[in-house]
Amino acid sequence: MGAGPSEKLRLAAVQMCSSRDSEQNLARAIGRIREAAEAGADVVALPENFVLMGTDRERAQAAQDFEGDVFRALRSAAREHAVILLAGSCLTRALDSGEDPRPHNTSVLLDRGGNTAAVYHKIHLFDVRPGDGSEYRESQHIRPGERAVTATLEGVTFGLSVCYDLRFPELYRALALRGARITFVPSAFTWMTGKDHWLPLLQARAIENQMYLVAPGQFGEHDDGRRTHGRSAIVDPWGTVLAQAPDRECVIHAEYDAGFLEEVRARVPVFDHRRPEIYGSG
């Protein structure tokens, strides 16, 4: 790539049905990264919990180290295939655990050389009763993050988020105000919530903030009995769904077009019309 900002990038989102077998999950993820790169992808994003889909307790007990096998393999894949790689999310041991031993749900962005460009810890934890008789208490075993994260690679600013974050528009506006033009939403949306909310939320966040969203997801039945929605998607700043995954493990592709993003922002200049002095912080 040249020294100036990238005008176009080929985006890829990997959809998986991860199991309790972390070695197999990692091997499948590496295979999908290769598949995406061979199809011309510049940017590849993995889903939430790509390395292990089990209970929150099981995932916490299998928390990763940043210098462990998982991140070594991903750094190697980014270098080998010369792609910007979003390591969806997996649980990582907190570096400053102190009195709180819970791991973070962590998303890591790697540059084409496999170097760490950004580390984001999921801020909003999934403590809900979705309405199908199930109950989730992510905060029992996972420690929330404390800050919004962006990173600029090849002249393009990327925003990081994870799954349940999608329901909090304040986070995405904060990312947009920091310059995010492409924001990742690696997810494991439940089937119950995803069937009604997944696409409307993605389109709303993309339209409100006039940014591209790359949303790779988990799908199907998992070893712990959980059922995830899938339908991974890439959405443009006008809210158009450029690509959406069927109900199988696969890679979807779409193009980031800087010119189109600027055209959308010129047509509807919402950032110029903001009235933050009125909104307050409540």
The CATH topology is what? Nitrilase/N-carbamoyl-D-aminoacid amidohydrolase
What spatial order of strands do you see in the largest sheet?
5-4-3-2-1-16
SS class: alpha/beta
Estimated helix fraction: 25-40%
Q: Give helix and strand order, one letter per element, not per position.
A: EHEHHEEEEEEEHEHEEEEEEHHH
CATH class: Alpha Beta
Calculate the mean pLDDT score and round it.
95
Largest sheet features: 6 strands, mixed
- Note the gap between the termini: 43 Å
Overall number of strands? 16
**Total helical elements:** 8
Top keywords for this entry?
alpha/beta, Nitrilase/N-carbamoyl-D-aminoacid amidohydrolase, single chain, 282 residues, six-stranded mixed sheet, 26% strand, 8 helices
Short recap of the structure:
This protein is of the alpha/beta class. Helices cover 29% and strands 26% of the residues.
Protein model, in words:
The protein is 29% helix and 26% strand. The protein starts with 7 loop residues before the first strand and ends with a helix. The longest helix has 19 residues. With 282 residues, it is of the alpha/beta class. It has a single domain, classed as 4-Layer Sandwich (Nitrilase/N-carbamoyl-D-aminoacid amidohydrolase). The strands form 4 sheets. It has a 6-stranded mixed sheet with strand order 5-4-3-2-1-16. It has a 6-stranded mixed sheet with strand order 8-9-10-11-14-15, covered by helices on one side. The chain contains 8 helices and 16 strands.
